[in-house]
Predict the structure.
Amino acid sequence: MHATPAFIQSRDNALLKELRRLSQDSSAYRKQGRVWLEGDHLCSAALARGQKPAIAVFSESFWPQALAEYARAATKNVVIADVLWSDISALESPAPMGFVLPLPEAEGLDGRMPTVVLDRLQDAGNVGSILRSASAFGFTQVAALKGTAALWSGKVLRAGMGAHFALRLVEGLAPADIDRLEVPLLATSSHEGDFLHRAALPWPCGWIMGHEGQGVSPALQQRARRHIRIAQPGGEESLNVGAAAAICLHASAAARDSAG
Amino acid sequence: MHATPAFIQSRDNALLKELRRLSQDSSAYRKQGRVWLEGDHLCSAALARGQKPAIAVFSESFWPQALAEYARAATKNVVIADVLWSDISALESPAPMGFVLPLPEAEGLDGRMPTVVLDRLQDAGNVGSILRSASAFGFTQVAALKGTAALWSGKVLRAGMGAHFALRLVEGLAPADIDRLEVPLLATSSHEGDFLHRAALPWPCGWIMGHEGQGVSPALQQRARRHIRIAQPGGEESLNVGAAAAICLHASAAARDSAG
């Protein structure tokens, strides 16, 4: 069913060099046209979403264990000497394996999809967590403005836990591009607008989540139909943006459920 | 008002060694009885919460800038040669400064406080984000079971952004200790119980958030008065636990607001 895996023992191997770049440079996927999914949890999530990896990569010592579960997952298997694994790993504990997948072709914005707009979010963990929440709550598109963490970087992929494969992802956008969205846009705010838990929310809609320090930019604020804030009875400090996004996207899902 | 700062140029300096340990070993604060807050955002948040650091530490090149804002923040200022800063830093971009604070004295569980129970949460970023949400939504106590990421570690402190100083934090608990909580306990579940957005929530209450992979343990599940799940119309995959916690804690705050 599957051929004997290729075995990489040299630091100069071409594939190893490319994997090193993919794991260290968060935007290398744009040049290479492929992405690196590291760790058994994420790889399993990708398989569960119907992905077919081009290459499955295993550490030498993990390969015997991996045989049963993953040997047939990819078109090609590659085993890497244990001493070289740390070159391509950004992780501490998960099982030493990964998939190489072709980067999905870039798509344009769909104006009618329920959308999450990411306005220059810096933290890859936040971005991944928001992708995961978006997918869970029925949003099907994520629109990232220029300055947002690279959506297909290793960190965002790991935090997204497979959500990437359930979403239409569009990145590198300018504020004016957002005008192509026909759904009503809601901007989160720390100090103005209706309180979320009392607001009637439209569906479909687009939620704009802003930069960790600066919030939503003026250019996007003026494009929003409504401003919404989250009541924080414990004090005025702002929430983590991943937490705020989860609360807003869940509220949309709950409103949709209650409406029909 | 303040003396000329001590200047550390030697890698063998005793304070530098202790800071190195605090920044590299997530539970070193227990031995040292003090915590290390790194980066200007977190330090500012601690000051805003009324904290008085024992020592303020600056990199040599940042010190001139820091003078105006931070020179009077602590009892003692220390400046560290730039080449040594990376020894004690876990960060890439924030301003190279930090505070040393005495570890607050351990307190016992308060049975009547609105509480978030952390059941062996592994990820420091998740734990910090949950502390932040807890504080924002009026929960005043966090009870961490043994196996949860160390609450006063650098990573949790940074993700918590000052929330530590607004909460009663109790860690190292066994499941039986949770019996001391008199508030009704709600356990999050991926597959059973009422849907959160239709549930009437008690106040005060305790929310139990479970391990990233395994969820809430059976020992805590049986201590919960109710099981609550979050509707996920987009599919059955589980949310990030920091996202789930934000949604649940916000729902409690919203219910409390609607009730009174």
Notes: DSSP finds nine helices and twelve strands in chain A. The interface with chain B takes residues 41, 45, 125, 129, 132-139, 159, 161-163, 166, 195-197, 213, 230-235, 237, 239-240, 242-247, 250, 253-254, 256-258 of chain A (CB under 8 Å). The radius of gyration of chain A is 20 Å.
